[in-house]
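INFO batch 0412 | record 1 of 1 | parsing
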Amino acid sequence: MELKKGFVNENSNTKLFCVGDDWQSIYQFTGSDVSFFLEFHEHFSHPEVSYLERNYRSTENIVNMSNSLISHNKKQISKTAFSQGETGAKPILFRISDQISEYSKIPLEYVYQLIKRLLSEGVKAEEIMVISRFNKRLKELEIKCGANKMDIKEFGAPRSKGIRFYSAHKSKGSQSKYVILLDIISGLYGFPCEIQDSSVLDLARRFKTKSHIEEERRLFYVALTRSEEFLYVLTVENNESLFIDEIESSLISIYITSRTQWDLIIDNYIPVHLKNDYNTIKRPFFCQRCGRILVERSGKYGDFLSCSGYPNCDFTYNFIELNDIVCPICGKKLVPRTGKYGKFLGCIVYPNCKFTYNIEVKSKKKLYCPKCEKRLQLVDLKDKKQLICSNSSKCDFRFEIY
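INFO prediction complete | emitting tokens
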């Protein structure tokens, strides 16, 4: 810094032009110091500053989630990034039960099956990037994928195409349409990594803060923002990274307690999520109360869906013939459900859409006839709840709820 000041000062006509991003300053372990961003004006007075806040890479959902994460850093230049792209699909958080994890880490077989499903849905291998805090597990996954004839990008071969397996540091500067974040967990080799830098580097630093966690948060920000459109975050129950709490409200959170549930989501929900075609859903996947996966069970009166969190959650859903009544918010189908306060109609794509229509009492919300688009009316006929068209003299639509 003193050398630069020797060239750029009040007695010199030399101009200094700098480009950088304090949100992506991730090389503290080499002696890099983010304070040069934050205190630039103290070294070079009255600088002219331009903010590059427009993101051309990622969707609005990913950019907003990343903003939420990085806002927890105290030492930063205040700004807000915004997306130039579309809203996009919500990122998915897979929370794997600690009962089926591999020593509190994500089973690599699960990640392999996710990659396999993406490829089977027409995703190109070069569009997939897997990112982790460290290389060891990435290498194991890369070997598994390669052994199963998947195309892998060769190291040191710029023209080769295939799935990329990058550490969070190595991923900086790259991007991909589909990004999988592996092992977003706590611990010594977690994210944030609990291995501290050496005291030698501490002596060289001028800027004393809770620098380690903020550096790791910037690194996680880099990992999140490699994704252009689809993002999958994998963590383990009771061993989640502290960063999960900072972004979970922006994610579709899916709790997995068995390999059967994982296969159900991978084979049925992921294709729908990729195409954003929720009208093809034949059954709801998630509990309306707690968000856990609904599983098929058999009872006295036939087959039904029940929350996988039972007995802690006793939510059930009976198989019914889908009707054509659509959600006024998202345009997807509404189905009868039973909740804490009685029966209601809920959107089949919950939790993507949380619209509900109370059928125990007359609701102020409006539903419309799928035949003639007139307003539907809730009526009681012989102890049965029905929705009928308000234009019943000309339209015969009716739907018996129960």
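INFO post-check: Residues 203-209 have pLDDT under 50 and may be disordered.
INFO record closed
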